[in-house]
Amino acid sequence: MTQPTDIRRVPGLRPTIVAHTALCLAAGGLPVLPLRKGKVPFRNCRRCADNTCGGRPNMKTPGPCACPAPCHGWAAATTDPRTIAAPTWARAWREAAGVAYHPGGAGLTVVDLDNAEAIAWARETLPATRTVPTTRGEHWIYQGAMQSANAVRPGVDIKSSMQYARWLGPGTGTMTALPTVVRGLVVKEPAASRPAPQAIAVPVGTVGGECRHRTPAYLERGIAMAEQRITDARSAIHATVYRTFLAVLSTHGRCGCLTDAHVTRLFTAAQSKGESPRHCTDAWINARTALGM
User: Fold this and answer.
1) Across the chain, how many H-helices and E-strands are there?
2) Which of 162, 164, 169 minimizes the C-alpha distance to 33?
3) Sign of the C-alpha dihedral computed for residues 251, 253, 254 and 257 taken in this order
4) Residue 134, exposed/middle/buried by CB under 10 A (0-12, 13-18, 19+)?
5) Residue 145 CA to chain centroid, in angstroms?
6) Helix, strand, coil: what percent of the chain each, to 5?
7) Is 103 in contact with 60 (CB distance < 8 Å)?
8) What is the largest CA-CA distance in the chain?
9) Strands 156-159 and 108-113: what pairing?
């Protein structure tokens, strides 16, 4: 491990605790990025707004974007002290509420346990490893990268490749190799074991309009029921949100009838139960991926 950079010797970087922590982590090999209030990355700059720069097409890869600002969430994570200290990052560090890192970029996997039940499951099922306390549970950190996924079990998320995790301290315990049981949590069922999605032809110009095989009232009832299902959830909020998104997309996601207004209603319901905007986005993307959309 290299020696941490002395923040006092980095031109243009305000010596905040958050920035100093980021430089120390980067020197140790963790790709870092700033987090704003709400535990979410900073929004894309005007140049990168709505991915007009071409970065991260379909949210699957970093893309060709070479923006010097901390844009595109996890894809902005870096170990380069010059980038961390760049003027384009300075404002973010001044406003940052914390530091995040890209586990997959460091060859790590974080098993995010969100409640006491999830922690009890991990202690009974997973090999001991480095453990970091969180606000509501624990992070179990393993050596080895894998695909990220939310709600793999009630109260359990996997954060590794193409995801970020908050830095909450070094934790305790010795880090061990990523076990097969964790990898198995995100293995999808063979396509043959799931009902095949119904193919629906949508004429050009009708995307976002009336669904040809269902009435508008059917869609409205579906969205209202989905909102209610999320609102009524008393536990396993992550899992409920993901499964609800999955159900909505499996029924209405291929015919072009879903609009931004519908999605906003679902996200609003989820956030009213304590989900962050980032969790909502991740759950939606994971649901689309699971359905091959």
Assistant:
1) 9, 10
2) 164
3) positive
4) middle
5) 15
6) 40, 15, 45
7) no
8) 65
9) antiparallel
Contact at 8 Å (CB) between 110 and 141?
yes
CB 1 within 8 A of CB 27: yes
35's tokens: 């987090």
Q: Token pair for residue 6? A: 């002395």
Contacts of 46 (CB under 8 A, 6+ apart): none
State the pairing for strand pair 40-41/32-36: antiparallel
Q: Which of 282, 283, 289, 208 is nearest to 252 (CA)?
A: 208
Radius of gyration of the chain (CA): 20
Place of tokens 């202690």: 123
Residue of 66, 76, 68 lying closest to 31 (CA atoms): 76
| Alpha helical stretches, state H, 126-257 | 180-183, 216-232, 237-252
185-188 long-range contacts (CB < 8 A, ≥24 apart) are: 185/149, 185/152, 185/153, 185/156, 185/158, 186/146, 186/147, 186/148, 186/149, 186/152, 186/158, 188/290
pLDDT tens, per residue, the chain with 293 residues:
334 344 334 444 445 788 889 999 999 999 999 999 888 899 888 888 777 776 654 444 445 577 888 988 888 899 999 999 888 888 898 889 999 999 999 999 999 999 999 999 999 999 999 999 999 999 999 999 999 998 888 899 999 998 999 999 999 999 999 998 898 888 654 443 334 333 333 222 234 444 555 567 777 888 888 888 888 887 778 888 888 888 888 777 777 777 788 888 888 888 888 888 878 888 888 888 777 76
**Which residue is it, tokens 């970091």?**
132
